[in-house]
Amino acid sequence: MKKILVTFLLGISFLLSTYAQETATVYQDALRIIENSPTFKKLGIETYTTSAKTTSFANQAYAFWLDDQTLEFKDRDFESYFGELYIPIEIPVFKELRTKKRAKHVFIVTETEHNVFAIEILVFKRKRRGKYPKFYQGKSYSFLFRKDSEGNVKLMHNLEIVSN
């Protein structure tokens, strides 16, 4: 009985870790869009690192919704949303796209929901490893992407977030 329960739990954790992961090509296209953005140029980013752990899609989507309430997110009602406690999952494909192991700019991706995902840039004063910080204080820059049926990536919206 214990073996069945352990196998079931391992299967569930595997499914959650593979939930809504994109291919390396999709993430590369999104990173290329970010690299050509005015925000990337304004920050003067020379090198960056990518994190294997994700940040919350719901919390990122809520920030975008607060900035532009015309954005629609399926299965999300942000009228009475207070945020969620989030346990990061790991997306190894995104981690493999890093250009450096340590950098002042760390890119963190969300899981994909209804072909929509976000990438957030965290800015640090010192070089950091590409990992998801539990508490981040300062400005971050977030980019919202939509993937179409052909696998093309389009930037929907970007914004600057100030965390205290």
List keywords for this structure.
164 residues, five-stranded mixed sheet, 5 helices, globular, alpha+beta
Q: Can you walk through the features of this model?
A:
It contains five helices and five strands. The chain has helices at residues 2-18, 24-35, 38-43, 57-67, 92-95, and strands at 49-50, 102-109, 116-129, 138-147, 153-163. Helix content is 30%, strand content 27%. With 164 residues, the protein is α+β, with helices and mostly antiparallel strands. It is globular and about 40 Å long. Strands 1-2-3-4-5 form a five-stranded mixed beta sheet.
Helix content: 25-40%
Sheet of most strands: 5 strands, mixed
Shape descriptor: globular
Element order: H for helix, E for strand: HHHEHHEEEE
Mean pLDDT: 82
Radius of gyration, in angstroms, nearest whole number: 16 Å
Classification by helices and strands: alpha+beta
Strands of the widest sheet, in order across it, are 1-2-3-4-5
> What is the percentage of strand-forming residues?
25-35%
DSSP, total strands: 5
Question: What's the SSE blueprint?
Answer:
Elements: H1 2-18, H2 24-35, H3 38-43, E1 49-50, H4 57-67, H5 92-95, E2 102-109, E3 116-129, E4 138-147, E5 153-163
Parallel strand pairs: 1-2
Antiparallel strand pairs: 2-3, 3-4, 4-5
